[in-house]
Amino acid sequence: xxxxxxxxxxxxxxGIGLGLxxxxxxxxxxxxxxxxxxxxxxxxxxxEIAKTHGVTCIPLSADMGDPRSIDAMMARAAAVLGxxxxxxxxxxxxxxxxxxxxxxEKWDQLIAINLSSAFHTTRAVLGPMMERGWGRIVxxxxxxxxxxxxxxxxxxxxxxxxxxxTKVTALEAAxxxxxxxAICPGYVWTPLVEKQIPDQAKAHGMAEKDVIENVILAPQxxxxxxxxxxIAALTVFLCSDMGASITGAAxxxxxxxxxx
Length: 260
Fold this sequence. Notes:
Elements: E1 6-9, H1 15-26, E2 30-35, H2 39-53, E3 57-61, H3 67-81, E4 86-89, H4 104-132, E5 135-140, H5 153-172, E6 178-185, H6 191-204, H7 208-216, H8 228-239, E7 250-253
Parallel strand pairs: 1-2, 1-4, 2-3, 4-5, 5-6, 6-7
Helix pairs in contact: 1-2, 1-8, 3-4, 4-5, 6-7
């Protein structure tokens, strides 16, 4: 479906981002896999994706909190893979604390990585996409782009901002064949979430099964984790020609969380 397209996925060495990189490679895309680790450490992963799907796949190391590092990454991707047709902004970090106790340096870090990085990557690819008359930008936001939760001030602010950036990008590119959308997942089953469950169970004095249902999944009416594969399938659809009329949208994958 997307054979010969060039895709770049940020925050793609694990979890949702890795699933997205694999799904795009399975559709025939050449893929740049961004991570914060050194490229030699990402290389076994990209080699595995390339071998499995018969596509070019390269590691792209960058500090997503540093605009200069992002610019260098975008230039390398274009030089090695060619012009980027599909950009997936997935890089993100989290810190949880009350506003009165929230470290300013953590606020700056979350805004830089969760929001500003998407501006810098989008800025690099949007003009060339519009000139070519085709492009797809998918921002992996969150249910927290639509609703708030206590103690997540920087994350919620960044994800609300990412949704705003999505809408502006979509409007500016509306007549050019370029779309921009935000996917807004609730809780997704990833290795990172799985590792948190024993600590959450201990902190709450609950069995792991109970902490999953009554703490982690409490906001989600269906009481189920979304899967990485669900997020990946939606991303692939948005990037296909059948997704050409969907732009500027916030698409929840949250088990009904934001329907309340």
